[in-house]
Amino acid sequence: MTTLRRGARGNEVSELQRLLLEWGYNPGPIDGVFGAKTEQAVLQFQRDHGLTRDGIVGPFTWRALQSQLPGHQMYTIQAGDTLYKIALRFQISLSSLLAANSGVDPNQLRIGQQIRIPVPGPGPEPVLTRVVSGWLPYWVQSLAFQSVQNHPEIFHSISPFWYVMTSDGDVLSFPGAESSTVLSYARAHGIRVIPLITNSFDSELISIVLNDPVLRQRHVQNIVSKTVQMDYPGIDINYENLFVRDRELFVVFLRELKAALYAMSKLLIVSVHAKTDAAGAWSGAEAHDYVGIGQAADAVRVMGYDFHWQGSDPGPVAPADWVDAVLAYAVSTIPRNKIELGVPVSGYDWPLGQTATSVTYSFAVAKANQYNVPIALDALLGPHYTYMDIAGINHEVWFVDALYFGTLLDLVNKYDIRGICIWHLGAEDPKIYDAIIGKF
Q1: Which member of 65, 121, 294, 295 has the greatest number of CB atoms within 10 A?
Q2: Cβ distance 338 to 13 under 8 Å?
Q3: Where do the domains of the chain lie, and which CATH numbers do they carry?
Q4: How do 419-423 and 131-136 pair as beta strands?
């Protein structure tokens, strides 16, 4: 294994963090970034095991970390073994076996290979093993921020909608941007504030900048300057509805931005449209090149929602079989430890033949109670119901509850990706946080 120290990034750092967690030390989220919390966990491990306390993971520290863990026994792979068969043999869950052997490729087992078998019993204090982030739209920032204040232990980072690009490459602020209340609270609780920049879903706006090298470089510098000036850990690029002809130029822009951010020790996160293949179901999805974006970005947020949207026919916001297919494609093109699934918590109310309005969980439940109609619960499609309003217009409502949200978390675990980003805070069923703790 490579010698690792603070500042290192990548899959081996993720493996280091998983090992530390299994030993009972808290390296922070399993995010592949060797930061202060991971370094502190390494120092504690080295102290407890009589190793040189330098915070550097060299051969001796690796050897100690990879020795038999407390609560585990070793097993040697034999002919015909699969992880599924081994899990059955030892009467443990496949997920716990995979978690105990995060560096093992289940499709490439070798006879004589050693793996760890978790032994049931008391373990270290549980911590979240996946990144949990959340988007805070500026138009409901106060409400969204309350969710963070109610559950500060849950969030690794938050991304408030604070900035919008312009056709001359500038970065303008939305109302409520750079809130000292949000910044001071987040920093006091160890939550990263990684603001979002949008192109307002404007294809032409981003196209003008991408196709002019001078404007493109000006935009890069403005983003980096803002990130450094405000001492953000990084930035979330949310440029949607691009022209397909700008697909390659968008990746060029991201590479240029990544290089400039990396020089300042800042992270690049990119939000992309969900799709199940390279072409996607519409032009905006096709214009997001998962391979190129995945190579340029430190993390990629796949917006796994709006299978049905405001302008579509009524239906589930993120049916589980579709999200499953979205993640299957995503992990085939982007490293798993870079992928965050954008998970919905809001829904839509469609008046018959009209455009839908967005609804929160509490609004959807209250509306069903108001009209005294039953809510059909569905763990794969989400809760839904119909009602007739006082004007005699029929409505169909689809939304998200903790049960359905938990199904989407199961898919995150299935594909072993980095974590989730919630769209959007303030709209959620309060019980989703119990689901997050239970699943992660």
Answers
A1: 65
A2: no
A3: 1-70+123-127 (1.10.101.10), 75-121 (3.10.350.10), 131-439 (3.20.20.80)
A4: parallel
pLDDT of residue 25: 79
Q: Collapse the DSSP code of 163 into the 3-class scheme (helix H, G, I; strand E, B; otherwise coil) and give the result.
A: strand
Q: Give the residue among 341, 316, 327 at the shortest CA–CA distance from 277.
A: 327
Question: What single letter denotes the amino acid at residue 409?
Answer: L
404 within 8 A of 117, measured Cβ to Cβ:
no
| C-alpha to C-alpha distance for 335 and 295, rounded to whole angstroms | 8
Note the pLDDT of residue 125: 47
With CA atoms as reference, report the closest residue to 153 among 402, 437, 356.
437
Which region among 22-26, 211-215, 303-307, 348-352 has the lowest average model confidence (pLDDT)?
22-26
Mean pLDDT: which of 47-61, 70-84, 378-392 is highest? Answer: 378-392
Angle (nearest 5°) at CA 336 between 428 and 408: 30
Which tokens hold the place of 232?
């953000």
Closest CA to 290 of 236, 344, 326, 266: 326
User: How is residue 123 written in tokens?
Assistant: 């373990």
For 318, left (φ over 0), alpha (ψ -120 to 50), or beta? Answer: beta
Secondary structure in 3-state letters for 112-147: CCEEEEECCCCCCCCCCCCEEEEEECHHHHHHHHHH
Euclidean distance between CA atoms 156 and 345, whole angstroms: 18
Number of other residues whose CB lies within 10 A of the CB of residue 181: 12
For residue 434, what pLDDT is reported? 92
CB neighbour list of residue 324: distance below 8 Å, 6 or more residues apart: 411, 414
Please answer whether residues 334 and 290 qualify as being in contact, where contact means their C-beta atoms are separated by less than 8 angstroms: yes
Give the phi and the psi of residue 276 in degrees, each rounded to 5.
Answer: -110, 0
Of 50 and 429, the one with more pLDDT: 429
CA triplet 121, 125, 130: central angle to 5 degrees? 105
Burial class (CB in 10 A: 0-12, 13-18, 19+), 133: buried
Q: Omega before 424 cis (within 30°)?
A: yes
Helix (H) or strand (E) holding 294: helix 290-296
